[in-house]
Amino acid sequence: MTTINRVRRVDKAGCEFHVGQGGPESSSEIKKMYDGFARLAISQGLPPAEKDTRDRWVEKLLEFGRNFLAWVDGNAVGHAAIIPDFERSDGEYVIFVSEPFRNRGLGAALTEMAIDDSRSIGLKRLWLTVEAFNFRAIRLYRNAGFAAVDRGETEITMILRL
User: Fold this and answer.
1) What pTM was estimated for this model as a whole?
2) Alpha carbon of 113 to those of 7, 54, 89: distances in Å?
3) Other beta carbons less than 10 A from residue 155's beta carbon
């Protein structure tokens, strides 16, 4: 994947941002984005708090996943990934948007791009887990078509049939 094909968008505040696919060449900008995450932004232990662990996690996502980025003023502020399992025709979905850029439509744009890409590579469903009290994320996922299939005390598993 490459970051050459960036699509211009406008967020809910009327500000310009870009979304596109990322690959190994995106490693340093993704790591920089996660280095700026506040401890409170970490959900379900992700991104990992310790820098070396976090950097290895990013490298694994880049190696095994299909990655998508959102940029504002040339800086990565959002990252989503699909980790495909072609034997099962499904993929796990993860997404993170830096705090100042949440609730502005960047997550929706990343999710739309990831869903379209998942269809194009032949996946039949996407799944994710989300903290039960992360209402913004749950609303984003529902708006994208995900449905809850398992509700635990602290986590919800959601599936999107493609």
Assistant:
1) 0.92
2) 10, 24, 18
3) 14
